[in-house]
Amino acid sequence: MRDNAKRVIHPLPLRVMHWLNALAIIMMIGSGWQIYDASPLFGFTFPRSITIGQWLAAAIAWHLAFMWLLVSNGVCYVVWSLASGHYRKLLPIRPREVWRDFTAALTFRLKHETGIYNAVQKLLYVGVLFAGLVAVVSGLAIWKPVQLWFFCNLCGGYFAARYVHFFAMSAIAAFFAVHLLLVALVPKALPPMITGGRQP
Amino acid sequence: MTSRRKVLQRAMALGLISPLDACNYEDPQHPDLADDFLHMMSAWNDRVQAALFNPHTLAPTFRPDQITRPPRFNAYYDISQVPVVDPTTYQLELGGQISDKTPWTLAQLNALPQEGQITRLTCVEGWRVIGQWSGVPLGQFLRRVGADTTCRYVSFRCADGYYSSIDMPSALHPQTILALQFLGQPLTPPFGAPVRLRIPTKLGFKNPKHIVQLAVTNVYPGGYWEDQGYNWFSGS
Fold it and tell me: A134: which of A172, A184, B4, B224 lies 20 to 30 Å off by Cα?
């Protein structure tokens, strides 16, 4: 039994947090796009068909409801990673290994080793965690620029915080796209995130 | 307020009251589980924001050269629909838990000590403008008329039918003013003449214009946008 538990690819807490995070990210980005559309920063808006919420009040309500899931789930993940030692699968990241694995991936020579993260994966995972942190800090800056003024200052003021928030979202969305693409290329990576899987 | 919302939700769920009387997000005719969830979270966010509110934290102030020019008109109707209130016959009516409910004329309000500010008005849509307002600090006014400042809400009714309400701690914040002037001149109709609320610790829609009645109460008063689903506290 103990031996079995050790050979699980993705432990149960990680799986639960992964799917809760997926839900939170989809809700936050979908509603965030609708909020963006109310006062666009750039010369485009997101099509209504892919945003969440019938109108601005609904989108804001979804956004400020699911921020609690995103943040509490994120805090749980950090605490669990530190307590369980999971973080050691992500660190350290060595530039030379990143380059080696990146070039190997581009030439389709990078092997998928179940349960082990290659250097590019490590960089992407740590990168998206950082983008998530930036998104939360800039989001709090936009939500409460007066009471949480230190977050607002950290982002360079309210005006800049909206851009910071947008780019953090863009980074997360880009990760999401690559993440889905890689799962499509290596479909065997998906079931273990549902069942836990077993190391071969 | 929370319990009131709960009662509202339960009543809605039971079909006891028309869904149009309460706030609905997706389909006003058919409040559903999602609406209940969003109402619950919005009430929770009200509580969190009330706890986060620090009466000593001031909204940032700006230099005169940072003022947005020309100023941006914003309302839920076209500028041609702006109500024009006659300043000579204007009266600010007082209601609720206030001991001296004698109405105030514009001249009387102008005779009170005034405070000015150059602050940022942030819209719920995300844009922001910087403006200069001056007027009577609301906290000083409330104490002068003998308002019960232990009450939970201060509500406002406006000449255009708009209405809104704020929590008492925010009402007593030093930067919350009954503004009579904008950019150094008496308020003009598009910017809320003759009296508007200027509260830089809340979003723009919590700054009602053309105020004709002010009341102090413990009964949740809601608001024009709040009743349609925007978060009630909406603090900055």
Answer: A184
What stretch of H or E contains B117? strand B115-122
Q: Write the residue in B44, B200, B236 that is nearest to A144 by C-beta.
A: B236
| B228 touches A at CB < 8 Å | yes
Is B184 inside a domain boundary?
Answer: yes
Say whether both B117 and B86 belong to one domain. yes
CB B218 within 8 A of CB B152: yes
Cβ separation of B37 and A53 shorter than 8 Å? no
Say if A46 is an interface residue toward chain B (CB within 8 Å): no
Residue B214 vs residue A2, higher pLDDT: B214
pLDDT at B232 over 50: yes
Which residue in B68, B9, B64 sits closest to B204, CA to CA?
B68
pLDDT of residue B25: 75
CA distance, residue A53 to nearest chain B CA (Å) = 7
Mean pLDDT computed over B95-118: 97
Cβ–Cβ < 8 Å for B63, B131: no
Burial class, A161, CB count within 10 angstroms (exposed 0-12 / middle 13-18 / buried 19+): buried
pLDDT digits (tens, 9 = 90+) for B13-43: 444 443 334 456 766 667 788 888 999 999 9
How many Cβ atoms are within 10 Å of A92's Cβ, its own excluded?
Answer: 8
Delineate the domains of chain A, giving CATH numbers in brackets. 2-195 (1.20.950.20)
Q: Provide the shortest C-alpha distance from residue B155 to chain A (in Å).
A: 21
d(CA B30, CA A155): 41
Please tell me whether residues B72 and B127 are part of one structural domain.
Answer: yes
Query: Using the beta-carbon criterion (under 8 Å), do B37 and A65 form an inter-chain contact?
Result: yes
The residue among B234, B93, B63 whose CA lies nearest residue B157 is B93
By the 8 A CB rule, do A24 and A73 touch?
Answer: yes
Does residue B57 belong to any structural domain of this protein?
no
> Which residue in A146, A153, A155, A162 has the most chain B C-beta atoms within 10 A of its own C-beta, making it the best mutation to test that interface?
A146
| Tokens read off for A66 | 């699911």
Interface check for B49 against chain A (CB to CB < 8 A): the answer is yes
Whether the complex's predicted ipTM is more than 0.90 is answered with no
- Do B196 and B207 touch, CB atoms closer than 8 A? yes
Domain that holds residue B38: 2-52
Distance of CA B224 to the CA centre of its chain: 10
Do B95 and B180 fall into the same domain? yes
Overall number of domains in chain B:
2
